[in-house]
From TrEMBL:
Organism: Halanaerobacter jeridensis
Entry keywords, A to Z: Dioxygenase, Flavoprotein, FMN, Oxidoreductase
Highest rank taxon of the organism: Bacteria
SUPFAM superfamilies membership: Inosine monophosphate dehydrogenase (IMPDH)
Protein name as annotated: Probable nitronate monooxygenase
């Protein structure tokens, strides 16, 4: 049994898996290229990058892989349009956008023949996205890591949205293994987006302390924080999140980071994410999905993809036998 291909506009991925775009610099060219090389869709996280940096990442990914490469850029970042335009100028295949909603993005995609895939968490936004010209939508539930647009569970959302739109639906949030993939394909999703599983890969360019927090975390050791973006965010518990809970994180009046259009200034989100990327678990914020503690090993992307596909095929095969 073969898994269905994931079709997004004119793009066709052999494997219906899109690797999540995780900032700051968690999803970079080596990870995106490795996933694309295995037949999935690799995403570079552009939030927190300069225009030149995102261009360099796209060029590096293109050098490493001839597969499908996209970018994920938060609508909430100050230089959203500039980063989108830079990505388009480098010939990116698709643009995924969350943490806000941009109507202008759809016209930019249409004018430049680039597939646009918004992240949504409601039937209303799914329908609006389809009407505006989205090639597909990522439906994200509360189980996801990072910034959340809903407190609703993923499965009921996917069921409703699959019935409401005709474009491909990509399920995201708490998807860890092949059985999860099979379950969402059975629900009518065209594919899945997975972030946390690919953090624990050899190609992910975060420091070892970041990955070790993932594979050492126990069930229930995740927490919701209030992000300066204006949305809740799901992260792994550590010293930094403990201080956030106690309201003892220092804030500043100025910020040197490529940051947000609007910021609550409770703390600097980019600084906290960068500290985590660099291995400082005392000052760093580690975003992760609700089921990330189930991950217990660090593997090459090639092996992760092979295991995911094999397990998904087995589970789909068993389901077919039961019918």
């Amino acid at each position: 049994m073969k898994l269905p291909k994931l079709r997004i506009g004119d793009l066709v991925a052999e494997i219906p898996i899109m690797q999540g775009g995780m900032a700051y610099r968690v999803s970079t060219a080596p990870l995106a290229a490795a996933v694309a090389d295995e037949g999935g869709i690799g995403l570079i996280a552009g939030s927190g990058m300069s225009v030149e940096e995102i261009k360099e990442e796209i060029r590096e990914a293109r050098e490493k892989s001839s597969g499908i490469i996209g970018v994920n850029i938060m609508v909430a970042v100050r230089k959203f349009k500039e980063l989108v335009q830079a990505s388009i100028s480098e010939g990116i295949d698709l643009i995924v956008a969350g943490a806000g909603f941009s109507r202008d993005l759809f016209s930019m995609g249409k004018e430049n023949d680039v597939e646009i895939v918004p992240i949504v968490s409601s039937v209303k936004l799914a329908k609006i996205s389809e009407r505006l010209g989205a090639s597909a939508i990522v439906v994200e539930g509360k189980e996801a890591g990072g910034h959340l647009g809903t407190d609703k569970e993923l499965k009921p959302l996917v069921k409703k949205i699959v019935k409401a739109v005709d474009i491909p639906v990509i399920a995201a949030g708490g998807i860890i293994d092949g059985q999860d993939i099979a379950e969402y394909l059975k629900l009518g999703a065209s594919g899945v987006q997975m972030g946390s599983r690919f953090v624990a890969s050899e190609e992910c360019e975060v420091e070892k302390e970041f990955k070790e927090l993932y594979i050492s975390a126990q069930e229930g050791e995740d927490t919701l924080i209030e992000s300066p973006v204006g949305l809740p965010g799901r992260a792994l518990s550590n010293e930094f999140t403990d201080r956030l809970d106690q309201d003892v994180v220092e804030t500043g009046d100025a910020c040197d980071y490529l940051c947000l259009k609007k910021c609550s200034q409770d703390f600097c989100i980019m600084k906290a994410l960068r500290q985590a990327h660099d291995g400082n678990m005392k000052e760093g914020l580690v975003f992760a999905g609700e089921r990330a503690p189930l991950i217990n090993n660090i593997l090459p992307v090639k092996d992760i993809m092979k295991d995911l596909v094999s397990d998904a095929k087995k589970y789909l095969g068993r389901e077919d036998e039961d019918e």
